[in-house]
Amino acid sequence: MQKRDAWGKYIWIAIVVAALCVGLKMPAAAKEETVQTADGDRQVLAAYEEYRERLNKIMHRSEIAGSGFSVIEDQIFPLETECYGEILLVPAMEEQYRRLALFFTKEDGTVVYRTDQLHANSRNVGMLEQPVVEIGAVSFQDLNRDGLMDIVLIVTCRNRTGVYAGREYKVGDVLFQGEKGFYRDYRISDKINRFGMNKSAESIIAYVRDGRSAEFLYTASTKAELLRSGFVITKEQDYFRQFEKLGYLEVMPGSYTIAEFSVFMIYLVDEQGNIVWSFQPMGDYDNLYALKGITCRDIDGDGMKDLLVFARYSYEGSVDEVVIESDYQIYYQRTSGFETDTEVKKKVHCTEEDTVAELVDRARAYWGWSPE
Known about the structure:
By secondary structure, this protein is α+β, with helices and mostly antiparallel strands. It has 8 helices and 18 strands. It has helices at 2-24, 28-57, 186-194, 201-208, 216-219, 223-228, 344-347, 356-366; strands spanning 69-71, 77-81, 85-94, 99-105, 111-115, 132-141, 150-158, 168-178, 181-183, 232-233, 239-243, 247-258, 261-269, 275-279, 287-297, 306-316, 322-334, 337-340. Strands 1, 2, 3, 4 and 5 form a 5-stranded antiparallel β-sheet that branches. Strands 10, 11, 12, 13 and 14 form a 5-stranded antiparallel β-sheet that branches. A 4-stranded antiparallel β-sheet has the order 6-7-8-9, covered by helices on one side. It is elongated, with a radius of gyration of 27 Å. The termini are far apart.
């Protein structure tokens, strides 16, 4: 046993020496990049510690503004709690990093609890700056049926860079009331946002309190599973088509309603009832208003059928009004499945008067061809 331990010791020393040698032989550029990365990490950590110190030093509502935060005056609400009694929810935006913080204060302004552990504050992973724009909705409900009021929060965000730069989207969250304040279940927040149940406070409540989830729309593997869970097929647009790479498939559009919001999906199902492919054409819209049509035609001229979906969707405007817009999406058939269009929509815009056939012709013209 001692001999084996000695050999282990020698092997460990050899590994350490080899690692040091590799480090000594590291190219100068790589060493410099490593140093720069380390310096950047230290700077971010220092900035975060400074931000946390400012946040945690706020002991009174009157100190919020002087600590780099702006109180969101029109979103202050009273709340009855088990541990603090009657308090006020005072949300505030950190001005430099656009992070949302929630302060809970007594009537005299004393801060009894604070948190910035919110899903909206983790959109830019590893960064202090976040894309928070404003609070979209606040609701108080007993979600876990323990007799205590919990908080439903919807935050509007907008990225500065990336694929979704400039586009506003919603981030939902739930804060459960506990014995010493409020807490989040990150798993619930993740599902709310990953499966599109963040459209309204009502849809979050329907999921968390009532157990109505849209998760099955993205995880189901068969048609039977969809129907069993409440998916409703749009019969007039349901048909079979021969796809060159995927075979003879049912094009099956439909929706699932949760808290009066219709989630629109399209599935390609084989003759055995297995889901081969799925599409979610409505993107960041809140609700399907009307399906104008679906067609399976070759659009980009490669000889394979593509999918074009044209529909009207609704979403909540900036002044609590419902806005209805027409929009379309194209999915190109490829060898291994389908690819979402990112080119045609930049140039070919739709109107209320357009038809599916007209959009197909204009999309084909973009690719420089016509079947006639």
